[in-house]
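Database export, one record per block. Field names are fixed; values are copied verbatim from the stored entry.
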Amino acid sequence: RRAYASDWKHFSGWCRRQGLEVLPPSPQTVGLYITAYASGAATADRQANSVATIERRLSALTWNYAQRGTPLARMDRHIATVLAGIRNTHAAPPRQKEAVLPEDIIAMLETLNRGTLRGLRDRAMLLVGFAGGLRRSEIVGLDCGR
């Protein structure tokens, strides 16, 4: 709630500085706002914002307008087109980790104590995970009892 209130205050202030009306909801005004916000022009530090932050701000505006009984049409072309462009331009590519090399697995295996059940278990998990090309979550999800 606090974030939504802050987002509404930010939007209202931006509209006032631009000489635009906050009510009734105008898709053109909201489109201009999210464009300015994406470029950093609507922020004090002039930093461009992430797509997630922009979408949260848009959700806050939609919620605030709905609370006032004047719904905002998020699917209006003035908003949808701008948001699609922002997603294409500002979206960060997924961060992919480097694959573990066989030399790394061998080095890990050498640190394990073969004389204990724990060491044997860890060794088996490393080898099964590497041989199967499994992710951490997939190794954890293995169920040997069935």
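Remark 1: Residues 102-140 form one domain.
Remark 2: The chain has two domains: 2-90, 102-140.
End of record.
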